[in-house]
RING finger and CHY zinc finger domain-containing protein 1-like
Amino acid sequence: MTFAKANYTPIHKYLHQCAHYRRRCKIRAPCCDGIFDCRHCHKEAKASFYLFFFRVQQHCVQCGVCMGNYFCSKCKFFDDDVSKKQYHCDGCGICRLDSFLHFSNVFHCNKCGCCYSKAKKDSNNCVEKAMHHNCPVCFEFLLDTREDITVLRCGHNIHLECVAKSFRDMSRVWEKLDEEVAGTPMPQKYQNKMVWILCNYCGETSQVNFHIVAHKCLKCKSYNTRKTREGPASFSSRITAR
């Protein structure tokens, strides 16, 4: 095999690029597989890299360019679009979008583990780590979702779009169940039997007459209920946020 003269450079013509040794070769570092002039060059390059990496800030230390009009030093997060009114919540541990027009209108509920509008602070039905669950419709994890979220009357969270796709008016269904319950009289020995129920919609516990067809919530009038063994004194899914 021969080499063209145009592509050949005598070895003595190479410049010495290493500041530590006069040599015409490089080394391959086994830790990162990078090519360096010597082990000292490798150490200095890595030290410079890590120094820059850990000094994350809004403006570049080299050229001064702003890397994002919004910058969070805790999340190391940048975004030029500040119209979303981002803010960092220490309780959530992440940056969130301010859907309530201004950060002063937001409070963090430690029970639910998420931020809500202050308008619902006194009426919030808390659910343990409400945002640390998947959406019940699409199963996306809610805490770091980018989609709009709404809170159901029971206190659980769900994507707003998923509500629109999956929820419908149940009033006609409840009317038919009213008719079926009225048209199915219970035997005499069960007519005075009472049971405790929990409403899956509003979270209310009620004591109602036992019926084999269904049990109606006394508060929201839905039949989306289930029997419980205890009354509201010792059983309640509703905790008021303070």
Summary: The CA atoms of residues 165 and 176 lie 23 Å apart. The first strand starts at residue 27 and ends at 28. Residues 1-9, 233-242 have pLDDT under 50 and may be disordered. DSSP finds three helices and 13 strands in the chain.
